[in-house]
Write a structure and sequence with these properties.
alpha/beta
Length: 149
């Protein structure tokens, strides 16, 4: 049985599109605390964009700085293929780390067609994707601990 109160959480959040990512961050933190987590056990790492998220997550994993990690960002489709490369490589890098480490990583990096979709997915309600990423990560943490015995 895990004790959420003692769980060390690291959140890596992109500062690009702050109107979206600030809301994702606030909802993720609120969810963690409402689930029994301690605000004192939260480390927040802000990076310039989504592409920088995996590098920081990698460092957290290598230094054993967290029991739980949540990645938050927002990639909005533009007129070039840049969106496709950033979205694909960011998610691919995070998936590799999920498979290679025993620490859950919640994926809260939005990939939307436009700002309207991003705003809809970051509203301050129960469908906020930051909240959903935290809930998913906490659920996986419970499963990992059940498997460990």
């Amino acid at each position: 049985m895990i004790n959420i109160q003692d769980t060390r959480l690291s959140i890596v959040v992109s500062e690009f599109n702050p109107i979206i990512t600030d809301s994702l961050l606030d909802s993720a933190i609120e969810c963690f605390i409402n689930s029994g987590g301690s605000k004192n056990n939260i480390d927040i790492f802000k990076v310039s964009g989504a592409f920088e998220i995996p590098g920081v997550v990698s460092q957290i994993l290598k230094k054993n700085k967290a029991d739980l990690i949540v990645a938050l960002g927002c990639i909005i489709k533009g007129q070039t293929k840049h969106y496709d490369y950033i979205a694909t490589e960011t998610s691919r890098a995070l998936m590799k780390m999920i498979l290679n480490y025993d620490i859950p990583i919640g994926f809260g990096v939005l990939t939307t067609d436009d700002m309207k979709q991003a705003l809809e997915r970051s509203k301050k309600n129960n469908s906020n994707k930051g909240r959903e990423a935290m809930e998913a990560a906490l659920g996986v943490l419970r499963i990992y601990n059940k498997i460990k015995g």
